[in-house]
Specification:
Helix content: 40-55%
CATH topology of the largest domain: Rossmann fold
Protein name: Protein YcjW
Shape: elongated
CATH superfamily of the largest domain: Response regulator
Structural class: alpha/beta
CATH architecture of the largest domain: 3-Layer(aba) Sandwich
GO molecular function: DNA binding
GO biological process, one term: regulation of DNA-templated transcription
Low-confidence stretches: none
Pfam family, one: Peripla_BP_1
Largest sheet: 6 strands, parallel
Oligomer: single chain
Number of strands: 12
Distance between the termini: 70 Å
Number of helices: 14
Radius of gyration: 25 Å
InterPro entries: Cro/C1-type_HTH (IPR001387), HTH_LacI (IPR000843), Lambda_DNA-bd_dom_sf (IPR010982), Peripla_BP/Lac1_sug-bd_dom (IPR001761), Peripla_BP_I (IPR028082)
CATH class of the largest domain: Alpha Beta
Amino acid sequence: MSPTIYDIARVAGVSKSTVSRVLNKQTNISPEARDKVLKAIDELNYQPNKLARALTSSGFDAIMVISTRSTKTTAGNPFFSDVLHAITAKAEEEGFDVILQTSKSSEDDLLKCVSKIKQKMIKGIIMLSSPANESFFTTLDAYGVPVVVIGKVEGEYQNIYSVDTDNFHDSATLTETFIKNGRKKIACLHAPLDYHVSIDRLAGYKASLEKHHIAMNPDWIMDGGYTHESALKAALELLSSPTPPDAVFATDSMKLLGLYRAADELNLMIPEQVVIAGYSDPMLSLILTPAPGGFDIPTRKLGEESCDLLFRRIAGHPAPQKVLVDTHFLLAASLR
């Protein structure tokens, strides 16, 4: 039979409440009493019941990770698996469990978040994307639990924090590179504009064209959806149009891969006939030929910075409301 806190109290010669204070890491206890309890715990090989401790103290040592997107729209997207790996590794270092919350809709996500907050099942939340409709943030902010969003946060909140890259600046920089290389018929294959990241990347592309007085062709600004299939379909339509572009900016790795596949199916040479570049990931940079230029999304750094910020707030330490992660521009073969 497993030892209980009553057994620890008996062996240590202290009260049950003293044992409880030690287990819950409270400070109102003498060093001598603490040492007695810790020695008894070692002697009895006591393993605390995590569930029981959570129900009688400040809650579970757990954080929740949510995407605010249905699993259908994240399947096959390496960003989500890579950033989740970084988060779980950091959480393990801190001794925290990670609850991965999946749902059918953002409304379902919100209900599950609120439920777990009320049950003291989580001490913080990391959101893997930032919805353009920030009513989600407004609701969560009222509960006083720290929420770190990987993405842009426009509103002012007490408990909502942002870890992001400068998507507008990076997209404008890439579009400027097309222009400096003599390209004028520049298209953009983007993700749906339900999230700040997609809005900012498209805005950076448009701002660069306007800066250089290059007219925008509405037919060259195309929504590639959330899946590999929808990205390929849009890429084929874009590259086979009667007036095809001579350069295409892909706002994420799915769109980039779709464009490469479409160019291959249409026997278009990259970069001789069409320049393709955008946001990629290290794996695509290794397998695509020619190597894609643009930006590798720093997924690991985004995950680690999000965890660092969240655990500082959980511990009651000050933390910046917004953190900007640096990106690295790759002038690779597809841009030359």
